[in-house]
Write a structure and sequence with these properties.
It is a single chain. The chain is an all-alpha fold. It contains five helices and no strands. Helix 1 packs antiparallel against helix 4 and helix 2 runs antiparallel to helix 3. The radius of gyration is 17 Å and the shape is globular. The termini are far apart.
Length: 109
């Protein structure tokens, strides 16, 4: 008897391999605004002084260039849900939505 290889990743598989295995699943598609090209977004990322904002821009640019969410998230070393949040911010606010934000809570008076 021959067995067919299982499409699911083995326990203990590396995160990049797991991301590639999930890439074909439905639901990994997301709409990204296209008023700025992937190339232009990468150029903006190079000029951004914040490393975190630059990482977010590069990850969104990777999706704009045609990569799946799982591939782009693995490349940025973040979860797919985190990348979806970044894309939602980008869609709503443009490049400004990918900038660093303060984490301070408002003070009670």
């Amino acid at each position: 008897m021959t067995s067919t290889p299982d499409a699911r990743p083995q326990a203990g598989a590396r995160p990049a391999e797991e991301a590639r295995a999930r890439a074909g699943r439905p639901g990994n598609e997301v709409a990204v605004r296209t008023d700025i090209s992937a190339h232009a977004l990468r150029l903006l990322a190079r000029r951004t002084p914040s490393l975190r904002a630059s990482l977010r821009m590069r990850a969104v640019a990777h999706v704009l260039a045609g990569a799946s969410l799982a591939e782009a998230a693995a490349g940025a070393h973040v979860r797919t849900r985190t990348l979806q949040n970044w894309i939602a911010r980008y869609n709503a606010e443009g490049v400004e939505g990918l900038a660093d934000r303060s984490r301070e809570l408002p003070r009670a008076e």
